[in-house]
Amino acid sequence: MLRSVEQRGHEAVSLKNQPWRISDNGTADEVRALFGQLVRASPQNIALTPSTSYAISQAAHNILRSGRVSSGEIILVLQNQMSSNVYAWQRICRESGARLVAVPQPQPDEEADRQPKRQRTDSSLSGMVLSPWDHALEAAIRLHAQSTRIAVVAVPHFLWTDGSGPINLHRLRSVLDEVMQGQRTVLVVDATQSLGVVPIQAESWGIDWLACSVHKWLFGPYGLSLVYVAPEWSQEPVTEPIVQDEHNRLGADGDICLPFDLDVPGYSEDFQEGAKKFDAGGRVNPILMPMVARALKQVLDWHPDRISTTLAPLTAQCAEGATRMGLHVPSWHAPHFLGIGPNVEDIDGEIQGHDPPCSQSLAAERWADAAAANMKRNGIHVSSRAGVLRVAPHVYNLPSDIDAFLSALATFRRNHR
């Protein structure tokens, strides 16, 4: 989080001691407009929710209400996909009789693995060479479409565990439209791991719902996920927010309260226009909004292309150093983070050191857990995720930081064996 964002937070928190001074002052609309610029969409199509899991749950709820998923149809996700974009689909499948299908993570080609690729991240991303995830997804789509309808594809832009990807979202929509022949598949995207570094054009790429938590690469605080909702979902009469509340009702702007109507009895149920219909319950958070507005302004000022250009050499330095050690890195990975996994010798060492012997996947997880703990003791903070070390250089890092990480990783491997 930027220091300027932190300062806005302190100022906003202090206002709570004089709540009569608090007013929205258009900050929420400013956040919608700034996020709209980032995803190339109208501010009218941006909703405010407390988390990406909330946003995805709301999308799933309305997809089911609209009759867009039925018994026997398929919802596609990726293996090891972030749970916030999986749990809601598990529930929808239980309720509807649809079937959840996970596309297995592509197995790396050994030669390609020794030559990790640094991603292009400019606006021509949609025309770049396809990643292994693109090929795996298209194969799964074409296979399953032979026997049933694919109702939903819910995916990230990059896999959160190891940075593998990207998924070419623009082409994915084209493939779905071609294969489903007029039976539109709903495309739901969790962009939390990349938006702010890698450009996304939500509207022109045919995305139906896109959610992004602001605490990652939007440099903001915890507690807010910004959501793009394609206009047809706001205009659909059967869609609704998952929390019944006054603030997203027509006429209830700011501190204006709707009158109680004895003839109803109750309050007017007409929704505000556009994606405000899907705002979470409660008034707009007067602490978060100024912080998020400040953060989004900085992201737009720096611009995602420039942020990725800054981070890509550091990530490539990580990948090249790990590859020289014989460790595994994805052959296609994000410009701003990647996963480093153990090699065969590391895995064999973990298996032999465990009684009774464990599986290869559990051995990889044990290795990554031990490596992350060792890094932390050396003042280097990386995460253990699904059997790999997730390494995410940030804009404050220098090449010397990467050198320190690689040196510590080499020392860990020697000592751990």
From TrEMBL:
The gene is csd. PANTHER family: BLR3095 PROTEIN (PTHR43586:SF15), CYSTEINE DESULFURASE (PTHR43586). Residues 28-104, 181-233 form the Aminotransferase class V domain. It comes from Symbiodinium pilosum (Dinoflagellate). InterPro entries: Aminotrans_V_dom (IPR000192), PyrdxlP-dep_Trfase (IPR015424), PyrdxlP-dep_Trfase_major (IPR015421), PyrdxlP-dep_Trfase_small (IPR015422). This is Csd protein. Residues 103-125 are annotated as: Disordered.
